Amino acid sequence: MDLLLAASLDEETRPHRRLWFECWQDGVWDDERSQHERYTGWHAVLRDLVLAGVADGSLRCADPDGTAARLVALVDGLALQRLRGVPPMSSEQAVAHVRTALADWTGSSHPTGE
What we know:
It is built from five helices and no strands. It has helices at 2-9, 14-26, 32-55, 64-84, 91-106. It is globular and about 40 Å long.
């Protein structure tokens, strides 16, 4: 999960996020199915990571699909805030927000990734 968060919210992925949001905003998609497939895949990756954490005992989660949906929304929302600069937020702060939320939602004992 730490690697995914770092990759999703770091400076290197910023241009990719910008393109994602510009395409999303402008509605430039091959078709509606393409957008559906992207979000289905993103949701599945996060759900599988939550399930892996449940399996290894690092997370408690009765609703992996709901937790994945919240993570998708949170990561996308924080990435958009970072792109717009409102409020000003570093990659580290964005990742800390996600870790804190994940700890609240799953009972993780180390929200800062320690």
